[in-house]
Fold:
Amino acid sequence: MLALVAATPGITLQAVFGSLEETVSRDEVFALLATGDIYVDLCAASLAEPGKVALFSEHPCESTASRNIGTTSRIPLPVILKAGHLLKWDGNACSIVNVGKSAVSVLMEGRTLMELPLDTLEDAIKQGRVTIASQHLSDPNSGHVLARLSQAAESDLKTATERCGIVCRFLRGQREFSVPDRTVRRWVVAYRNAEDQLGNGYLGLLPAPNVGNPVSKLPEATRSLMMEFLDKDYETLKQKTQYATWGALRLACERQGIVSPSFKTFSIAVRQRPGFEQTLKRKGPRAAYQLEPFYWELEQSTPRHGDRPFEIVHIDHTQMDVWAVCTQTGRPLGRPWLTLMTDAFSRRILSIYLTFDPPSYRSCMMVLRECVRRHCRFPQTIVVDGGREFQSGYFESLLARYECTKKCRPPAKARFGATCERLFGTTNKQLIHNLQGNTQISRQVRQVTKGIDPESQAIWPLKELHQRLVEYAYEIYDTVDHPALGQSPRAAMDDGFLRSGMRLHRIVPYDHEFHIFTLPTTRKGTAQVSLGRGVKIHYLYYWCEAFRDPSVENTRVAVRYDPFDAGTAYAFVNNRWSECHSEYYTTFQSHSERELQLVTEELLKRRKNHSGQTCITAKKLAEFLESVEKEENILAQRLSDLETRSIYSSSTAAPSKQRTTVPSNNEPVLPKPAPAQVSPSYSTYGEM
Structure:
C-alpha cells in the first residue's frame, strides 16, 4: 500500500480499497492513516466518503496538493450562443451579431466584423479563454418567465396547452373551431406578442393569474393596534380565545376613534403569525417543540447516526404496555420496564433488559453487559437522556474505563433519540399490542370497565414475556428490511463492518476483568459482616474465609454481586475483592441463570405488593424454587440447560480471569454472539 500511494500521489481511498482488496484489510489501511504513515487531510473530506479522500505518502505542499487532488476534470456545461451575447476575449469586449451553422459573426470594439469557426469559439469558451459577459436579449425577461411559470397551476398549464393546439391549427390555415373566431384571433395575437417579447409564445396563452388586491384596506393605525394586541394580549400564557382578544381590540379601537377590524380579518391575522413562536408564547416550549425546525445533526461535524456500527448507540427505557402476572398465583404484578440499546447506524437492537424495577444505573450497566456478552464490543459514543440513572458514578466509571463518550440529549426534545424512541413504538405495534393484557384500551379511561380492564386480562408471566421479546428482537426485527435502510439491520451491520473494517482494537472480551467492572452493588453499597453468617445481599447470606478475621467482624464492607449467578457475590476485604458463596449455593447452582433471575424478579415484585405479610428469606426462596421445579416448562428448561452446558459453558458461566486472544492473521475469528434461545437475563439490583 505504501508503494501504491508513493507511486500515485493523490489516489483516492476508494481506489486503494479496490486495488488491494485481496492483500490488505481495511483495518490495516485505517491503521496506516492513524499512525501517520500515510497522509490524509481529514478536513478536506470525511473518511466515510472514500471516493473523495486523497492519500499521499507525505505532507504535500499547497500547489502539489491542489494539482493532485483535482485529478478528475469538471465536465463543462453545454455552451449556447445567441446573437446579442457580449463576450470578453483577452481583455477586449465584443458582441455576437449572428450565429450560423458553421461560423459566428463577432463585432469587435473598433466596429470590426470578424467571422470565427463555431467549433473554435466554443472550445475557447470551454477552456476559459473567452467568457460570456451578459445576454442582454434574454436576461431582462428570464426572471419574468420563471415567475410566470411558477404562478401557473396545473389547470392553467392544461388550458394553455389546449389553446396552443388551436392556435397552431389556425396558423396552418384551419378555420373551424369550437370557440368563437374572435377568441381565436385574440389568442393568436397573444401568442405572437409573447413570442416577440419573451421568446416563447406558449407563455402568452396562460390564463392571467388571479392575485387579487394585495393592498390591505385597514388603516395603518388599526393594523398597528391589532399587531400590538396579538403580541401582548393573545400570545400569552393566559391562552385567551380569539374572540376575547378581538373584543378587547374592538373596545380599544372605539376609545381611540379608529376603525376596528372584523373578526374574520383578525382570525386571518392570527393564522398568518409564525406557528412556532405563537405556540411557544401561549403553551410553552414542550408544546412548541412539534413545530420547531429539525436539527439534523447532534453537532455540526458529527453525522446523525454515525459512519459505522457501534460508533453511536442509544440507551433508553420505557414501561411496557402489557401487564405481567405471577407464575404461581396468576395475579398481576405490574407493568415491567424495558431497557433497549440500539445501534444508530444499522438500527440493530444490540441488547435488551427486562425488569420490574424502575430505571436505574443497574439497568444501564446490565444492558451494556449483555451487549458485550453478545457482540464482544463496547460502543464509542452513547446517547442518553437527562435521567438520573445515567449520572451514576458506577455508570460513568464503566464508560471511562472503556473510553466511551456519553452524550446527553437536550431535555424534552425527543427527536435527538428518534431511533430509539421509534423502536419502542415499533415493538408495541408489532408485538406488545398483540398480546393479551396490553394497555391500549387504557387510553380511553371512560371506556374501561372491570371486565375488560387490562390488569384483569393479564396472563403473561415475566419469564415467557422475556423469552418472546428476545426472540422478536434478535430474530424477527433483526432480519426484516428496515424502511430507512432498504435492508435488514443485521445486513446493514455486516455491510458496515465490511466498509469500515472490523476494528479489532475495539474488541472487549467478556472476561473476568469486564466481569468485575460491571458488577453492581446494593442500594446502600455496603453490608454488615454478621458473625458466623457473612453479609446479607438480596435476602441471602454470603460467606468467604476472609470474614473469619476478627477485625472484619461486625464492620460494614463494600459488596458487589453477580446478577448472572445468585450463588456468588464479592466483598472488598483487606484491600481486595474476595469471592463469596451463598448458604444455599448447592440449590442455586442447579438452576440456569435465566431461570434464577426471572424467579427472583417475581419474588421481589410479590414482596413489594404484599410487604406486610411475610419476609423473604433464603430458605423460602429455595423452597419456592423446589416447588417450581414440578412445572413442565421449568423441567424442559433444565433439560435444555443440561444438554447445552458442555457447549456454552464458557459463554454462560462467570468469565475466567484469562483474556481472550485474537489470532494474528488478516481474517481474525471473532467471538460469535450467543444465540437468542440461551440468552441469559439478569437478577434484580438493590437490597430491600
